[in-house]
Amino acid sequence: MKAGDDHGREASLRVLADELRDPLGLLADVSQAFATSLDLDETLENTVAQISHYMHAEAASLFLLENDDSELVCKASAGPVDVVGLRLEADQGIVGKSVASGQVQFIRDVGEDPDFAGFVDATTGFETRSVLCAPLLLRGHCLGAMEVLNKGEGDGLFDASDRHLLQVLASSAALVIRNARRAVELVEQERIRKELELAREIQATLLPGRGNPADPIVGVNIPAREVSGDFYDYYRLADGRMAFSLGDVSGKGMNAALLMAKTSSLLHCLGKGITRPSELLAQVNREVCESVTRGMFVTLVAGIYDPAHDEVCLANAGHQPPMLLDVAGAMTELPATAPPLGILGEVEFPEQRVRLEGRRLYLFTDGVTEAPGPSGGDLGVEGLRAELAAHGALPARERLERVVAELAAREALRRDDITLMVIESPGETAHRYTFEARAENLEGLRVYVDGVLRTMTCAERLRDQLVLAVNEACMNIIQHGYGGDTRDAITLQILNNDGILEFRVEDSAQRVDAARIKPRDLTDIRPGGLGTHFIREIMDEVDYRVPEHGTGNLLVMRKRLSNHEVARDAV
Fold first, then answer.
1. Dihedral Cα 326, 327, 329, 330, nearest 10 deg
2. Is there a domain that residue 191 lies in?
3. What stretches of 207-323 show up as alpha helix (H) in DSSP?
4. Measured CA distances, 156 to 27, 151, 162, 242 (Å)
5. Which domain holds residue 252?
6. What is the H or E stretch that residue 407 is in?
7. Are residues 364 and 451 both part of a single domain?
8. What contacts 336, CB < 8 A, 6 or more positions away?
9. How far is 433 from 427, CA to CA, in rounded Å?
10. Ranges of H-type helices in 102-159
């Protein structure tokens, strides 16, 4: 008996396999159609037509859920009446019942079913006799439903085998539809990616090039996404002055990028004829207000730098206060004096004037101050000041790029664009450091001198010796010149004249008698007093002078670099 059962089961499986072979071939054809055509609607029409033909149905239709699954929309149909575009409530009719229940709805003879509603027949003139409707289920999620009407052979009514077959076809069709949708999404994402790349390239052309290293204005920008809402610009006017601007558009994405492009272009174009920052911002503001999307605005600083008078004239429209930083790291902020562009049509933009006098003016967007700091949390204005002061010995572009690189390294996924600009006197001595004459400030001095010597490719051993020599010279001034308790300053300048390093240390203490400054005999083992000996051992020349203004003291120390005293990486 058991052997008979096994034979019967095998026979049933063979029959089922034979029954499924044709529908599986049909599904293979449908899958191939989706693979070769990315037109989802066209492929669905072809699929419905094939299923209708295969099941000998007089009509068939496929409905998909839309509008947050609140509506069923017919996407494809086959038969004498075209119902593509027909919309039903998500729970309406047999299709809605199939979707809501997740079950095949089978009405063998609608004439014997009191729940059948013939409103579609009344509208289209089609006569429905038998209905099969199967949900398009995929991992418990319903995409819609497949419906076939009236079997076109025999008594015109579907049977249980048809029900099973449509259920198989619907389940497989759901998978094919999902994959087709994903393929379309990937193609669309690739199209958008290429368009964003092109937009980024266009935006990059709106930013100034690297320019001349001797230019008094330098800027850098790193977008958080493919396109940026930040911008900066600078260019030389006919009279030798330089116009500059730096801004940030509210929001993210393409809308911000388009407003950025418009604002930047307006500033560049109008700024060549309107050289008063107050007038320029007023005109650009009126233009922006005419077309800006509700809720969007632009914060902006724009101005003119006059190298002949070492003076900056600027206007600030709701932007981060620019930072004026002196060589000792002391900071002065220039707060905004007007609202952002794009909010009010008629606004005055007061001007601010400031002489640099060896100081550096930094402009930046909030992506800089809101970037992670070295100890966690936002960098903030004070953190930015410390970062800039730490790299103050570097040339302008290298300084900005170093700071921005460190910010980017601490933020794996940047939240905002990073834009930073500096304006500094073109004749500025790059390596100049002033500090309050206190012993606790000597550590900062040593760090500064080491940084400068690294940029001059000084070999490590000599670099350490020179750092200590400068430290000893300044310590002597603090202890013996100022008496160790003062708020007076010491200023250090470091020059490199064709391989001769010159250290100029200036103070405002009582003038010293150079003849009385002699190194103590090394056999004298009393504490202290060996700094002068060490300085003369390291330096080739040590000279005490009177500063040009006639007060205080100027110590000049020189050291010639030989070939072996140049860092190997510079050779």
1. -30
2. no
3. 253-270, 277-291
4. 25, 4, 12, 87
5. 207-424
6. helix 396-409
7. no
8. 299, 316, 317, 318, 319, 321
9. 16
10. 119-124
Domain identity same for 358 and 436: no
Entry pTM: 0.53
β-bridge partners, 420: 220, 364
CA-nearest of 281, 284, 228 to 256 is 228
The pLDDT value recorded for residue 154 is 78
Cβ neighbours around 355 below 10 Å, total? 12
Q: Is 449 exposed, middle or buried (0-12, 13-18, 19+ CB in 10 A)?
A: buried
433-449: per-residue pLDDT in tens?
Answer: 888 898 999 998 998 89
| 172 plus 35 within the same structural domain | yes
Q: CA dist 548 to 327, 390, 552, Å?
A: 20, 29, 10
- Span 140-154, pLDDT tens digits: 889 999 999 998 887
Give the closest residue to 371 by CA, choosing from 388, 385, 386, 383: 383
Task: Match 């790029």 to its residue by tokens.
Answer: 401
pLDDT band at 51 (very low <50, low <70, confident <90, very high): confident
Nearest to 144 by CA among 165, 171, 124, 120: 171
If one compares 315 and 510, the residue with the highest pLDDT of the two is 315
User: Token pair of 178, please?
Assistant: 């999902």
- Which runs of consecutive H residues, i.e. helices, occur in 207-226? none
Task: Tokens for 53, please give them.
Answer: 């033909």
The answer to whether 135 and 170 are in contact (CB under 8 A) is yes
pLDDT over 90 percentage in the chain: 32
pLDDT of the residue at 267: 93
CATH number at residue 64: 3.30.450.40
CA distance 147 to 106: 10
Residue 154 lies in a domain: yes
Residues 119 and 157 in one domain: yes
Distance of alpha carbon 80 from alpha carbon 65, whole angstroms: 24
**What is the domain count for the chain?**
3
Encoded tokens for 20: 């499924």
For 191, counting Cβ atoms within 10 Å of its Cβ (0-12 exposed, 13-18 middle, 19+ buried), the class is exposed
Residue 54 tokens read as 């295969």
